[in-house]
Design a protein that fits this description.
The protein is α/β, with parallel strands linked by helices. It is built from twelve helices and eight strands. The strands form two sheets. The protein has a four-stranded parallel sheet with strand order 2-1-3-4, sandwiched between helices. Helix 4 packs across helix 5.
Length: about 290
């Protein structure tokens, strides 16, 4: 299967290990990833300040991907939510669609609304399937308790994102469990990580993060697991800051899902960028059998 890969802005610069591990696992699964240099920002930072500029930015990416005739696979859940929102608006408001396409026409582009937009986890769970992924697994992560963090932008609004049940999602848990790890039930699993307000109200952002760390530790988690660069930055880079500023913080390191799956596939930890995380997660290999 070929997919057009949308990396967004943060991953290539700040969470390179996410891209590395995705390319590694998707290669093992027989995917060819189509990269478009013309992609720009998804528009997320503009969404609450200039809505039409957000739509134009997002729609340009949609139009570029639509021309490729492939599924658009998105790694960032903020990008995913933004692109799905723009797609929904363009499909349901003809006047906005006309205005945006008039602007896109200046670059020889037009969005028709025929693009399939999916997050990485959806591609793995639905398009590849658990049974097919299991065929590629060569090692088991035994006795490992994982706290899955779903993130906000993929789950809500559910009628637009079409990702999973926002009240009782299961996709991420099932993907974790095929690695041999246990996806635990924990109280704060669907709460915000705090990333959206970091840089605006750092104390509140860290309070939200600390609440999640405490909840995960109390439930017996060995690691958090995420599939979004913003969440990873909050649980990795910001948690690293918190450990130094807040001695009471209960450390709970975060691993990206493709890193976790890659280990179970027998991929070298260096090829998954394990050492690129701020908080050391290299000891996770001790759980491999």
């Amino acid at each position: 299967m070929n997919v057009t890969l949308f990396l967004g802005c943060n991953i290539p610069v700040r969470v390179k290990q996410y891209e590395l591990s995705v390319r590694a696992i998707m290669g093992r699964l027989g995917f060819e990833l189509n990269d478009l240099r013309e992609f720009n920002c998804c528009g997320y930072p503009l969404r609450n300040s200039d809505f039409e500029a957000f739509l134009l930015s997002s729609a340009k990416n949609l139009a570029l991907a639509e021309k490729e005739g492939q599924t658009m696979m998105v790694l960032c859940k903020c990008c995913y939510g933004s692109l799905k929102k723009a797609d929904h608006i363009m499909k349901n408001d003809s006047s906005i669609k006309s205005r945006i396409n008039t602007q896109l026409a200046k670059e020889g582009l037009e969005y028709h609304g025929k693009l399939s937009i999916k997050h990485l986890l959806t591609v793995l769970h639905q398009d590849v399937g658990l049974s097919e992924i299991e065929k590629k697994i060569t090692k088991t992560l035994k006795d490992l308790n994982i706290a899955t963090h779903y993130g906000c932008h993929a789950l809500r609004p559910s009628d637009i994102t079409e990702f999973d049940n926002p009240q009782a999602p299961i996709i991420f848990d099932e993907l974790v469990q095929i690695t041999g790890a246990t996806s635990i039930n924990w109280k704060s699993r669907l709460d915000c990580c705090g990333a959206p307000i970091f840089g605006i109200n750092d104390d509140l952002a860290m309070d939200l993060t600390e609440k999640k760390l405490t909840s995960g530790k109390e439930a017996g988690a060995d690691y958090l697991c995420v599939a979004c660069p913003y969440c990873q930055l909050q649980f990795d880079t910001v948690q690293d800051i918190m450990i130094r500023k807040r001695p009471q913080v209960k450390q709970l390191s975060s691993i990206l899902y493709p890193q976790l799956l890659g280990l179970a596939m027998g991929i070298d930890p260096d090829d998954l960028g394990l050492k690129m995380n701020k908080l050391d997660i290299t000891s996770i290999v001790d759980f491999l059998e």
